[in-house]
Write a structure and sequence with these properties.
By secondary structure, the protein is an alpha+beta fold. The N and C termini lie far apart (about 35 Å). It has 2 domains: about 1-45, no CATH class; about 50-175, Nucleoside Triphosphate Pyrophosphohydrolase (Alpha-Beta Complex), CATH 3.90.79.10. The longest helix is centred in the first third of the chain and has 22 residues, at about 25-45. It has 4 helices and 7 strands; from the N terminus they run H-H-E-E-E-E-H-E-E-E-H.
Length: about 180
Amino acid sequence: MTQEILKHVKYSATSLKKVIFCLYDENAFNTFDKTVTGYVNHIQDSLGDGPYVTVDIIIELPEGVVIIERSNPPYGWALPGGFVDVGESIEEAAIREAREETGLELDELYQFHTYSQPDRDPRFHTVSTVFVAKGVGVPQFGDDAKGLRVLKHEDLLKGEYAFDHKEVIRDYLVMKEKGAY
């Protein structure tokens, strides 16, 4: 929610400049204030006005590819991934995000492609480097994920995905079919 508010207040062509929330008790207000203020400050102070650097990971298991169900907007199924933290390499971010969202360690990590269309993320402009890696361990969702699936290659394009992840998966499958991976 905070990301959507920030997008509308900072980047919207509308006249929306302020969002007002009505919270009914002090505890709810304090929790909301701490979370929202901290998150907005993190985005603005650490990341600036964007574009924001992100990673996504195509995690291969013997049974198929791991996808997660997002617990935050934009909701839906997606490849595991997230923002690169200040002081972190993109490889370190991919390893961290995979561990946080799937419980898996990564082996044979390599860069696949970078996606940078300004509208690839409905919240704001992100540039994502996509990695492919072998998953090690037993997959289990955590952190920003509320669900996890492992899909066979032939089932990957049957569903809808958040962001541009259907395009990412399509590109991956084309390269896999050509024997590039």
